[in-house]
UniProtKB/TrEMBL annotation:
It comes from the Bacteria. This is Histidine triad nucleotide-binding protein. A motif (Histidine triad motif) lies at residues 97-101. Transmembrane segments: none annotated. PANTHER family: HISTIDINE TRIAD HIT PROTEIN (PTHR23089). InterPro entries: Histidine_triad_CS, Histidine_triad_HIT, HIT-like, HIT-like_sf. Residues 5-113 form the HIT domain. Coiled coil: none annotated.
């Protein structure tokens, strides 16, 4: 999609610090980390947010979460981690391309602010 930052990152048109990539998704480190480990997982196809997901995306989502589990194991996140996807203005979404934040290696407060 034109003028979508994360589509450009997925296409390699905007550089990113990549952690993992395959035909369906890309994991890269957040430019403004909120924890010692903070990376984003995005589908390569443009999906605006979790609000746009359908039953047809079930396999993609399974792949996203299995990849997150594998990456967190590789990064040594034995203490646990948090997966967050922000949706819309009230949800705090600033980039309108579905992405999952993965935060780890610090104690994370709940509920969030
Ligand atoms: P949101 O606020 O939409 O949930 O999360 C967007 C995230 O993307 C933010 O945590 C922000 O730091 C990150 N971000 C924004 N622009 C860039 C960029 O150009 N490169 C990388 N690696 N992260 C970005
Ligand atoms: Zn996009």
């Amino acid at each position: 999609m034109e003028d979508c930052l994360f589509c450009k990152i997925a296409a390699g048109e905007v550089p990113s610090n990549k952690l993992y990539e395959d035909d369906r998704l890309l994991a890269f480190y957040d430019i403004d980390p909120q924890a010692p480990v903070h990376f984003l997982v995005i589908p390569k196809q443009h999906i605006a947010s979790a609000a746009a997901l359908t039953e047809a995306d079930a396999e993609l989502l399974g792949h996203v979460f299995a990849t997150i589990a594998s990456l967190c194991a590789k990064l040594g996140c034995e203490g646990g981690y948090r997966v967050v996807t922000n949706v819309g203005v009230d949800g705090g979404q600033s980039v309108p391309h579905l992405h999952f934040h993965v935060l780890a290696k610090r104690s994370l407060a709940w509920p969030p602010g």
